[in-house]
Amino acid sequence: MTPPIEYEDATAEVRAIYDDIRATRGTDYINNVWKCFAHNPKLLRRTWESVKEVMGPGTLDPVVKEMIYLAVSISNNCGYCIASHSAGAQKAGMTDEMFGEVMDIVGMANENNKLVAGYRVPIDDVYLKVRGAD
């Protein structure tokens, strides 16, 4: 286990990133993920900048962004991210009913993805006209 680096033990470079996290999120709390990533300040900065940009204001509502992140975290079996983004989604407005639907979708999509991959289902021509399909 990588020990978290607390603010008082951090380098000036890491403290500046912690300060940005606090200011952007409007909190004094720094998550353990950032504290562990602080062992590699370049990784910490790059990851924080990416999260700040992607999860910040945009076309999608914050609750939708958090539920998407939660769904991916469940599929990737990342316990830390499941806990973090469950809390984030709840804070953004996810209800128990919404969580249940997310779980239904995650379960169904994972099952169907495995079946389609196993059967090597050919992609329909009509879907090849959709953005990003090959």
From TrEMBL:
Among SUPFAM superfamilies, the record links this protein to: AhpD-like
Q: Which residues form the Carboxymuconolactone decarboxylase-like domain?
A: 42-120
Q: What one GO molecular function would you report for this record?
A: peroxiredoxin activity
InterPro entries referenced in this protein's UniProt entry, alphabetically: AhpD-like (IPR029032), AhpD_core (IPR004675), CMD-like (IPR003779)
NCBIfam families attached to this UniProt entry = ahpD_dom
Q: Which PANTHER family match?
A: CARBOXYMUCONOLACTONE DECARBOXYLASE-LIKE DOMAIN-CONTAINING PROTEIN, SI:CH211-175M2.5
Q: What is this protein called?
A: Carboxymuconolactone decarboxylase family protein
Q: Which organism is it from?
A: Algicella marina
